[in-house]
Amino acid sequence: MGRAAGHGSADGRIRFVALTIATFVLAVTAVSAVAAWATYQERAERGAARTPALRLHEGQALEEAPLRLQFYLDDVHDHQVEVVFVEPVRTDAPLPPGVSHWPGPGEAVLSPSLAADGVGDRYGRVVGSITPEGLASPGERYAYARPADGSLTVKHALLATGFGSQDAGGFGDLAAVRPLSVFLSLLITMLGLPAGLFAVVATRLGAAGRDRRTALLGALGGSRRQLALLSTGEAAPALLLGVALTAPVLGAALVTDLRIPFVGYVLAASDMRSHAWQLVCALIAAPLLLVALVVLLHQWAGPGRSTRPRGAGRGRLVKVGAGLCPVFLGILSWSPTAFATQGATQTVVLVSLLGTVGALATLPAAIALLLSAAGRGVTEIGRRWGFAGTLLAGRWTQGRPGYLSRLVAGVVIALGLLSVVQVYPSMHSASVQGALAMRERFGHSVLTVQMPHGAERRAGSWVKRLPAGAEVVVLDSTLGMANGAGEVRESPDGPVEVQQAVTVRGRCDALRGLGLKCPAGRSARAVPLSGATPALRALLPASVTQVGVRRGPFAARQGDVLVVYSPQGETLPVGRLKRDALAVLGPGALVEGVGQGWIGGAALLSSQLRWVTLLGVVGVGLVALAAALNCLAEVMRFARSIAPVSVVSGSRRVYVTVAAWTLAAPLCVAAALGAVSAIWVTLPYTTPPRNGELPPQMLSASVAVLCVLAVLVAGLAALSAVRESRRWRPRHD
């Protein structure tokens, strides 16, 4: 009976499509959440397995440690690379996971992604590849390299007895990923909330006819179980089709590694197979959840009661949602203060997320109650002035808060998600734009070189390998680093600010190329930093306002930083210089462009923010599709139910009036109130200490587009009603 009712209902095809899509979306959301959990679990296990065991065995001398290690951070095309320089003391030294044999002196084994980046022999002659067991993720850039000259000594290396730890070390991709709670919160907000909205809309499409049928079954003595079976049978074909559409996606993830579109992250099939039964359970949970929703949202009228559909139960749900809305808005108002006083702790972030999701979920109910209350005023206008369409529309709006809630939900949630997608990335735009501006100005024409301990005597040999035309100077800083790190030092009396003093040494030609005048004598001369010395100004922190300039031949001392640059602003061969630095100066020689630390961080941040854009766009698309299907169903319902009115009113213009009051006006009001709520929802991101920006042009344009669409929907409904009225004839029973 349920299947027959679904095929025979007027809105059956629309509801079938909506329920199919809702099942698919819910299943994908549930599977994605489980896949994220599985990825984090397996990645942590592989990270723990390759983490060095740094505690020596009892009674073991330092020289007896089988492994000497040094970790090295590099960048290739602005992607972070982790290189482990290793010196096995014995031939039987333990191997890390994913490596079949130790590389020889001057050799290296690379991950497939790092080899595909074209690094060549930067870390040594490539003699092998790291298998997936030794990588946190298939796309990780990781390498094991062995110095050619055995420069890893007991004094300047980490000593390890093997690999394997209880906790995963922060190496490679594990050092760059956000916690699982952050990703799941993003998934729930951007994808889970739209999927839930879609499920509710799909469940209640064409609800008026089913409510009448439910009341009739109750009057005939039908039980709750029979009603549940009827509702399940009606929805079952669509739910099964939705599962069938999701199964191939899950099957592909279990069989082969999948690259997530736009984001570029590679989902490991081995991780999915390790948690296959949890993924299958997530797939099955989606139709079961929708079955429960279908049963719960079609209330039982009870035996012997009226056959008229009732809205009281759903009205109560709308009132409950509207009552909770101020609570969630209060949480959003509290969030900026919490971020300012407590920082972005996990508790504050989760509570702020609860406020965002809760506000977006309950705002449609609050707006629906406002519109329903306004329906009384519309009714009074129609009664006082004798406008049949206005009177009918007011009565219709006044008694249908559930209908209004579903009608405006798409508009409100779409505006909220669009605003979050716009604001969240903008919080980090200042650092990203600053890094990109620095790269745009200097490119790779200016490089800094930090030398490992003991490499000063080999620096001259490396300088001789510089390309023709390149110049080099030495930065001697009292704090040991040219980037200003450590300007506050601890003392017995507490933190003490140390004034950083920097001296620039080099030949006259090298000094002039940086905008500095060559001093006449051998003593240092203080020179203020200004626009005439842009490279030094970019290299040094803002606290350094002047430098000492000293003329002399190249001579590097411990703690010095070399600055290599092209006076003509030409791009230097960074890859070759890095390879030569590692080969001559030894492991730990760091060659970077100006502001590379910021640029690498900006690239990492941009790749992480792509998740926000991807999930946000998908979520907004789902909300828009749900709103479109809901409006299509409402247009059809409107056309059928209002068709006989022209017989009473004597004019078909009544359809335009009713459509304007019941469709266009609520959607336009929802767009305006949705814009206000979008500003409120983004308070945690736009209020100090956070610096996100919500473009007013985006909100204005979105409201204008939504209002135009509302007018088009109302016009379509009026035209459909006119067409139905021409076919309508009174029934003669």
Shape: elongated
Global structural class:
alpha+beta
Main sheet strand line-up? 16-17-15-12-18-11-19
Query: Would you identify the regions where 5 or more consecutive residues have pLDDT less than 50?
Result: 480-487
Mean pLDDT: 80
In angstroms, what separates the terminal alpha carbons? 25 Å
* Proportion of residues in helical segments: 55-70%
Number of strands: 19
Q: Gyration radius, to the nearest Å?
A: 34 Å
Question: What profile does the largest beta sheet have?
Answer: 7 strands, mixed
Beta-strand share of residues: 5-15%
What's the total helix number? 22
Task: Give the helix/strand layout.
Elements (H helix, E strand, L loop, with lengths): L1 H7 L3 H39 L1 E2 L13 E10 L2 E10 L18 E4 L1 H5 L8 E5 L12 E4 L12 E3 L1 E2 L16 H25 L2 H13 L4 H32 L2 E2 L6 E2 L1 H6 L1 H21 L15 H31 L3 H40 L2 H11 L2 H26 L2 H14 L3 E5 L8 H5 L7 E7 L10 E4 L2 E4 L4 E5 L1 H6 L11 E4 L5 H6 L6 E6 L9 E5 L8 H11 L5 E4 L2 H47 L2 H5 L3 H29 L1 H4 L9 H32 L6
Parallel strand pairs: 3-6, 4-5, 15-17
Antiparallel strand pairs: 1-8, 2-3, 2-7, 4-6, 9-10, 11-18, 11-19, 12-15, 12-18, 13-14, 16-17
Describe the 3D structure.
The protein contains 22 helices and 19 strands. Strand 4 (107-110), helix 3 and strand 5 form a beta-alpha-beta unit. It has 733 residues and is an alpha+beta fold. The chain has a 7-stranded mixed β-sheet. It has a 6-stranded mixed β-sheet with strand order 5-4-6-3-2-7. Strands 1-8 form a two-stranded antiparallel sheet. Helix 4 (180-204) packs parallel to helix 10, helix 12 runs antiparallel to helix 18 and helix 20 (653-681) runs antiparallel to helix 22 (696-727). 57% of the residues lie in helices and 12% in strands.
